[in-house]
Amino acid sequence: MGYAKDAGIKLGEAVVTDVTFENYAACGVSYENYFNQAEGFKDEMLKKIQMPGAEVSFIKDAWPDEAYEYKKLDVPTYTLCIPTESLSEDKTDMHTSMGLRVKKTSADVYYRALVLSV
Fold first, then answer.
1. Among 3, 30, 77, 107, fewest CB within 10 Å belongs to which?
2. What H or E segment, with its residue span, contains residue 18?
3. pTM higher than 0.85 for the full model?
């Protein structure tokens, strides 16, 4: 981000990767913090992913992450999250040393979404 700006490189789009505890039971992938996107962003993402188990959630303003930095630069961006369940006591600590649980179907959907993001 800093290098591109300093070098005068205009980014076409930025895709941030992350984990989320949102919708662990309900979906295979979550598009979060999508900013400066064209009309129809959600429909476009849904068309790309079409596969069994590809339930998708969209959260426009989720927990802050690197996407907010790209937003400041007016770069179209979104965070592609894989839903996880924390093994911590409260099930929401994404930084626990206890680890995270990921559903196999989520891993498949996330992989497809990630490959189709480029």
1. 3
2. strand 14-20
3. yes
